[in-house]
Amino acid sequence: MFGLFGGKDSNVVAVIFERRDLYQISGQRVKGSAVSKAKEGARAHPRCIYWAVFNQKGSITESGEGAGHLQVPGDTLKKLERELRSNKTVLEILKALETKQTDKMAKPLVWHWYPPRQMHGSETQTRE
């Protein structure tokens, strides 16, 4: 669809920890050597729990844990990794990036697998 030039751009997506029950998906469309810089920025972000580089066809070419991966339980991170490429929020961001509606976008992650409140003992004592 994008012809011969569509494969040069990549979309870098980072899952950012906001709080126990809210992660944010941040994505940007980058080209050439900027892909490495964006990937390293995502990986090193102190609240990034997972990052991925997508090609313009929606396939993951690289991915891994971010610097903030210890902020979430290991099983939650594994579920996130498995479901990232099919998550509705991620697909919406990828579509906007792939169709060049924008070159940067962030949205709260709509996801059913956030860790339960009781896993974080002291949080159960707080008032709402």
Brief digest:
With 128 residues, this protein is of the alpha+beta class. The chain has helices spanning 34-44, 74-83, 88-98, and strands spanning 9-19, 22-31, 48-54, 60-65, 104-108.
Please specify the SSE layout and strand pairing.
Elements: E1 9-19, E2 22-31, H1 34-44, E3 48-54, E4 60-65, H2 74-83, H3 88-98, E5 104-108
Antiparallel strand pairs: 1-2, 1-3, 2-5, 3-4
Number of beta strands: 5
Q: Give the H and E element order.
A: EEHEEHHE
Q: Give the overall average pLDDT.
A: 89
Unreliable stretches? 1-7, 123-128
| Major beta sheet summary | 5 strands, antiparallel
Judged by helices, strands and strand pairing, the structural class is alpha+beta
Enumerate the strands of the largest sheet in spatial order, edge to edge or round the barrel. 4-3-1-2-5
Percent in helix: 25-40%
Gyration radius (Cα, Å) is 15 Å
Number of helices: 3
Rough outline: globular
